[in-house]
Each structure stands twice: as C-alpha cells, then as structure tokens.
Design brief:
This protein is α/β, with parallel strands linked by helices and 215 residues long. It is built from six helices and twelve strands. It has one domain: Purple Acid Phosphatase, chain A, domain 2, CATH 3.60.21.10. The strands form three sheets. Strands 1-5-6-9-10 form a five-stranded mixed beta sheet. A hairpin with a 5-residue loop joins β7 and β8. The structure holds manganese (II) ion (MN). InterPro entries: Ap4A_hydrolase, Calcineurin-like_PHP, Metallo-depent_PP-like.
Length: 215
C-alpha cells in the first residue's frame, strides 16, 4: 500500500474492462486539474484491452489492482489460471503485441498496488480497511459456508467494516453506493456507463456505453 500526502484533486475511474473508446471520451470530460486514478479491472469483457493498457501505461496514470488484472498477471507469468472466453480474448490481443510491449506490461502489472490511501480517501478495487489482508482489497470480504459456497459481504451496509474518517472508493460490484464511508464507481462498462468520481465535490462524471460489437 502506498501512503500519499497529496491531495491533488482526484477523479477515480471505475472498472474500464477494455472500453478504450469510452475511456478516451471520459478523460476529455474531466474538469482541468484532476488526476485520473483507476480502481482496476482494466481488461476483459470489452473490445480493446490493448488500447486501454496503452492509454493508462503511456500516461503513467495510477491504478490499483483489480481481480481481472491480477488474473491476467498470473496468466502472463505462466501460473495455472482458469481461462474463460473473456480472458482468452484479452490474452490473444496481448500475445499479438511485440515482445517488448508484453514485457513492459508484465513488469507494470507486477508493480500495481492493491490500494492507494490519501487523507480521508482510500482507493481499492473491492474493499479497504487498515488491517484487512490485500486479498480483500481485490475481492472484498467474503466467507464460505460448509458446502464451500462463497458469500460476498455487503460491507458498505455494515458499520463494523467501515473505517472512521475514510471514504473508500471502489469498483468491482456494479452497484449504486454513495455514502460517507463508501462510493462505488463501477457503473457496468461495457454494457453500462464508465464513471469518474470527483473526490472533492463528490460528483460523478458519466460516459455512456459504446455500441460496438467485440468481435
Ligand atoms: Mn470488474
């Protein structure tokens, strides 16, 4: 976890999921003086994972690791992961890039933090607390029943999961959450909009989905 003194004004952008054109339009809508910061899940689902990665890595934007980015990293490292159609598409696009591009991507993914903490604000893909394991930053708090079924905790509704004085800005869930403790910026791209949350004014800037088939 990085601790930041900053606060420049932040525009926290939700799960991009390979929507490069939607991201490009959203970035042009940000008011001047805001730094884009991403909650992760850059790849899978949408049409252009390479375009998204180029836009973010070339501009040196700050990103926290999402579960999709983490799985991509593990796949590129040769670790055993379950590859569904979304990740297969992402991997196909990435493997069509030059070797140097892929190497830059792997080292960039290796360096992604699971959370960024600013005064009054914590940014993580699914959840943040000062003491939770990094795995919960990516996946949120979960528990299993005796059959192994996984239950997600709706932590934004449960005061025991909140951190006093901190608003956690997160993605992952595609649910409308906007409270003093928790803000969800995943608006469901590519089927839904891509959103940016301005941490000082508590406003959203929203870019509607692009109507383009993936393949
Ligand atoms: Mn996601």
């Amino acid at each position: 976890m990085d601790s930041q003194q900053t606060p420049s004004r932040l525009a926290v952008i939700g799960d991009v999921h390979s929507c490069a054109a939607q991201l490009e339009r959203l970035l042009t809508k940000l008011p001047p003086g805001y730094e884009p910061v991403f909650v992760g899940d850059l790849v899978d689902r949408g049409p252009d994972p390479v375009g998204v990665l180029d836009a973010i890595i070339d501009n040196n934007f700050r990103v926290v690791r999402g579960n999709h980015d983490d799985k991509l990293y593990r796949a590129l490292k040769g670790n055993p992961v379950q590859v569904g159609p979304d990740l297969a598409f992402t991997l196909e696009r990435i493997r069509s890039q030059p070797a140097g591009w892929r190497e830059r991507l792997v080292s960039w993914l290796a360096g992604l933090p699971t959370a960024l903490v600013f005064p009054g604000i914590a940014i993580a893909h699914a959840y943040w607390s000062p003491t939770c394991p990094p795995d919960e930053h990516l996946w949120g708090p979960r528990f299993h029943d005796e059959e192994g079924t996984i239950f997600r905790v709706r932590w934004w509704d449960v005061p025991a999961y909140w951190t006093p004085g901190i608003q956690v800005v997160f993605g992952h869930y595609h649910l409308p959450v906007l409270t003093p403790h928790a803000v969800c910026v995943d608006f469901g791209a590519p089927e839904g909009p891509l959103a940016a949350y301005l941490t000082d004014t508590h406003q959203f800037i929203v870019e509607p989905p692009t109507k383009v088939a993936r393949k």
